[in-house]
Design brief:
144 residues; alpha/beta; Trna Endonuclease, Chain: A, domain 1; 6-stranded mixed beta sheet; 4 helices; globular
């Protein structure tokens, strides 16, 4: 099994364990006159619902040698998808799902916290090995 598929399946199973119903896998959204599969099939996005809450999840594995490179790509995609969701399906919240191994990289540096807060990023921190979600973080609510 490819590493990216392993992470995707782990996140999917973790969401199901937490009571989410996967409604679309992958999740597609229109941008302009084009329908795109969010994340273009490299690392899958999916949609889920629990009670009245709807989310879309962009799953990232951070497998490249440079965490900064992965972060740049993830934030660019997240920003694009978040704005399109606000326009097309404003009740659905977008989350960026990242492995627990990247948490300290993101949280221990004030510049990264600042960027995540300004971009209003919602994070899900997951542990692939145990297929569990460790933490949900909404940076819009985190003080500088």
């Amino acid at each position: 099994m490819a590493a990216r598929d392993k992470y995707r399946n782990a996140v999917r199973n973790a969401l199901i364990k937490e009571g989410w119903t996967i409604t679309q896998d992958p999740y597609r959204i229109s941008i302009g006159s084009t329908d795109v599969q969010v994340d273009l099939g490299a690392e899958q996005s999916l949609a889920a619902e629990r009670n009245e809450t709807k989310i879309a999840v962009e799953i990232k594995s951070f497998l490249n040698d440079s965490e900064l490179y992965d972060l740049e790509n993830a934030l660019g995609q997240y920003s694009l998808y978040r704005l399109m969701l606000l326009k097309r399906e404003p009740e659905r919240l977008l989350y960026l799902d990242v492995p627990h191994t990247i948490r300290s990289f993101l949280m221990e540096q004030s510049d990264f916290r600042y960027i995540l807060r300004e971009l209003k990023v919602r994070l899900i921190i997951y542990r692939a090995k145990t297929e569990e979600i460790i933490e949900w973080i909404e940076f819009a609510h985190i003080a500088p």
